[in-house]
Design goal:
globular, disordered C terminus, binds zinc ion, disordered N terminus, 12 helices, ten-stranded antiparallel beta sheet
Length: 623
């Protein structure tokens, strides 16, 4: 077995693929299909290595911070007009640790204030764990929560999921429900967006400097934070990492203490990203409870990922609704001055429905704006179209649904695939397979959905999106689409790689009953029904049997390894990770939740196209 095979082979992520194919994606429609996945590149695995050691800087000889870089004044670049963010105050360089503490307390209050009119989307995906002799702790059941979090004075949230779904979920939680409920009511897993919303100060806490440490590219000062005696229940207890330029907290790790009677606080690891000048915005929170060593009986054992995005979404107020009405374009860009034929009118009408839905889902914080990931998706769709001589009157577009549950759907000629599904697909052929099903619906004319061309049907609150939009097909159309999809695949560059699709479907089947929440779709048809895979079943028998002991057999990836979302502007991009060798069956973690370990970088220091809401701030002022 070659070394190469011992890496998770995720061709689609390999940077060579991304670079090479995007460049020519435009020509693809009229030319040869692109062999997007020619050789399995050693890959970008999805495992966020929880053990990646953060390099410790040379031990400071003097605990005083006098050697800290003279602080560059907080990046005081002009903020774009559309994003009214107060510039952070410029900070004089601190000379003692006490001053550093004062500074990050002040910056924390500044962050709370800056975000107080924001209502980001918050998603928590939780897997309860049971011990498997071979694979270690594996998911036994799962839970999913999605809502909008109001970060104002009265912290509040609105759920996107329907009441009955929530009811069902709390029933499923069983003995865990009471515990969970206690935690979930105020903010639950998203509590640790701040250390302490109201009383983060010296009256309530003691701060102890520990050391310096690099988090990614960012040098940090590390402090332990403990609540003072008698400062009340539910105070932050743990560690904070503070970057040494503007003295913002970039990571919090710990729990709350002491717990009220009959309740319990989860442990959390909370990460922030420098997405706008001067501020580090809460982005990822990992929670974990339980002892995962063999033989231990846990009452509660789970892993949960909380992701926050959509900071730049408008609040769903009536006032805001009004301000969003804009007259952008008055020019009719129709190619000709002729009248529309009945067929043209029909197509215009469908386009209008499609545009309405895409626009509305984007505004609700559920759809990423068009971006890098779409170039990859579109390349794969093009490959299918070209080899099958598909010539549609309107081009097929793709978009990324920002949520974790595994789903695809299409509206008009737009194919939508969820972030979670792109994450877990092992290779490009599997991506092609799930896209081919939606392409088949389009080719077969299943996606009329023209009721959404009426704009009144777009007037609903963001949190009722799932009640107002739906793109499910009847079983007959599902079967027809699957049949057509297999035909499309067999004529495509992926024809020789359908064994991998079969493996993925087997892996999905193996976990289908445990991952009910991940497999519950909210807008499209589910991939499984009653614990049985019902998508592309003709391919399920393809390929070898699922074998956990084969380290080179990667049937499905963990969540979070492919797509990363900019929590400020919702842009999605492909994760760039270095290959990590799989050394045991436990490393495979198909469909599983892992800790977060984002590579921290300062705003503008690493101008990934998606990382920067504006480039204006990257220019040093005064030049
Ligand atoms: Zn379908």
């Amino acid at each position: 077995m070659s070394i190469c095979n011992r890496f998770i082979s995720a061709v689609l992520l390999a940077s060579a693929f991304i670079g090479a194919t995007i460049a020519s994606a435009q020509q693809a429609a009229n030319s040869q299909p692109q062999q997007a996945a020619q050789q399995p590149a050693p890959d970008a695995t999805s495992q966020v290595p929880p053990s990646q050691p953060a390099a410790t800087s040379p031990a400071p000889t003097d605990p005083a911070v006098s050697q800290a870089q003279p602080s560059t004044p907080a990046v005081a670049a002009p903020t774009p007009a559309a994003v009214a963010i107060p510039a952070p105050p410029t900070t004089p360089a601190p000379t003692t640790m006490d001053q550093v503490v004062n500074l990050f307390i002040e910056r924390e209050h500044g962050l709370i204030k800056m975000l107080s009119n924001r209502t980001p989307v918050v998603e928590t995906y939780l897997q309860n764990l049971a011990n498997d002799p071979q694979l270690g702790p594996i998911p036994s059941e799962d839970h999913y929560f999605l809502g909008r979090m109001d970060m104002g004075e009265t912290v509040d949230r609105k759920d996107y999921l329907k009441e009955e779904q929530k009811g069902m979920q709390s029933r499923l939680l069983g003995g865990f429900a009471k515990l969970y409920k206690v935690q979930y009511q105020p903010l639950g897993f998203s509590w640790m967006v701040y250390a302490d919303r109201t009383d983060f100060d010296r009256e309530h806490y003691d701060f102890h400097y520990i050391r310096r440490e690099f988090m990614g590219d960012v040098r940090c000062l590390v402090f332990d934070v403990t609540p003072k005696k008698g400062s009340g229940r539910g105070r932050f207890l743990g560690r904070v990492w503070v970057e040494d330029q503007d003295y913002n907290i970039v990571r919090l790790n710990g729990t709350y203490y002491p717990a009220p009677r009959n309740s319990y606080f989860f442990h959390m690891d909370s990460w922030r990203l420098n997405l706008i000048p001067g501020y580090w915005v809460p982005s990822y929170i990992y929670s974990e409870e339980g002892d995962f060593s063999a033989g231990v009986k846990n009452k509660t054992a789970f892993k949960a990922q909380t992701r926050i995005w959509g900071y730049d979404l408008k609040k769903g107020d009536k006032d805001d609704e009004l301000t969003q009405i804009r007259v952008d374009s008055v020019k009719d860009e129709s190619a000709s001055a002729q009248d529309a034929s009945p067929l043209q009118a029909e197509r215009e009408w469908q386009q209008q429905a499609e545009d309405n839905v895409v626009e509305r889902l984007t505004r609700a914080g559920l759809l990423a704006p068009e971006g890098d990931v779409d170039h990859i998706l579109q390349t794969v769709v093009n490959n299918l179209e070209v080899t099958n001589n598909i010539d549609l009157p309107r081009p097929v577009r793709t978009r990324v649904l920002l949520t974790a549950p595994l789903e695809t759907f299409s509206v008009g000629n737009t194919i939508v695939i969820s972030r979670g599904l792109v994450d877990v697909l092992p290779d490009e052929a599997s991506l092609a397979a799930v896209l081919s099903h939606e392409l088949a619906h389009i080719v077969l004319g299943h996606n009329l959905g023209s009721k959404y061309a009426f704009n009144d049907r777009m007037l609903f609150s963001d949190d009722s999106t799932y009640q107002n939009l739906g793109f499910k097909h009847i079983p007959e159309e599902e079967q027809a689409a699957d049949k057509k999809a297999v035909d499309l695949l067999k004529n495509s560059p992926y024809a020789q790689k359908l064994d991998n699709v079969g493996l993925f479907l087997k892996a999905l089947q193996a976990r289908a009953t445990q991952l009910n929440a991940l497999l519950t779709t909210h807008l499209g048809n589910p991939l499984t029904e009653g614990g049985t895979v019902n998508r592309l079943t003709a391919l399920e028998t393809q390929g070898p049997a699922l074998d956990n002991t084969k380290l080179d057999q990667i049937a499905a990836l963990p969540l979070g390894g492919r797509v990363k979302v900019n929590p400020w502007d919702d842009k999605a991009e492909m994760v760039k990770t270095a290959p990590v060798a799989i050394t045991s069956a436990r490393d495979k973690m198909p469909f599983e939740v892992t800790p977060f370990y984002p590579r921290l970088a300062r705003y503008g220091s690493n101008i990934a196209p998606n990382a920067a809401p504006t480039t204006a701030a990257n220019t040093p002022s005064g030049n």
